[in-house]
Amino acid sequence: MIYQKAAFDYNDLAEKLWLISNQAYTHGSPWTKTQFLADLQQPHTDYLIAIEANEIIGFLGFSRVVDEVEITNIAVNSTFQGKGHARQLLKALIQQEKANDVFQVFLEVRKSNEKAKCLYESEKFRVLGIRKSYYHQPVEDAFIMSTKLKTETMK
In this protein, which residues make up the domain named N-acetyltransferase (predicted)? Predict the structure, then answer.
């Protein structure tokens, strides 16, 4: 099942998100527990949280500004990777944000993260450009990717 951040205690959730992120990413979590907690407390951010057997197994963090969404984090516990959970979270976000009349979704992904890039491309994300030295530990460029959820903004 997928839940939103409002269903959780933010202090507990920040800890769990950090643990999953730290374990899921090759180079450890790009965010600290404190950064997750601060993000959870923002009114313009939300999280989709995947639960299996009463355990948080993955999440997708995002922020919405007017008619655009930026995905800030997506991670799945390595035990559950390769089973479609990241795709399920991504599809849930796209479906939800189409209903919210969002025009476009953006994200950044490490240039070396081929699995993630293939997932995003299979869901109609396209590379818009590169952010030089965007990631640290190790320093690496990021692809800026986006997908349009509707073809025009005017009604």
Answer: 1-150
CATH code for the domain of 78 = 3.40.630.30
Is 108 an annotated catalytic residue? yes
Number of neighbours of residue 7 by Cβ within 10 angstroms: 10
134 among known catalytic residues: no
Query: Which of 108, 123, 134, 140 is labelled catalytic?
Result: 108
Three-state DSSP state, 27: coil
Instruction: Give the active site residue among 47, 97, 120, 135.
Output: 120
Domain around 84: 2-148
The tens digit of pLDDT for each residue in 25-55 reads 888 898 999 999 999 999 999 999 999 999 9
Alpha-carbon span 131 to 17, nearest angstrom: 25
For residue 7, the 8-state DSSP code is: G
Report the C-alpha gap between 26 and 81 in whole angstroms.
Answer: 13
Q: How far is CA 73 from CA 25, 53, 150, in A?
A: 11, 23, 23
User: Over the Cα atoms of the chain, what is R_g?
Assistant: 15
Both structure tokens of 71: 């995905």
In a domain, 154, yes or no: no
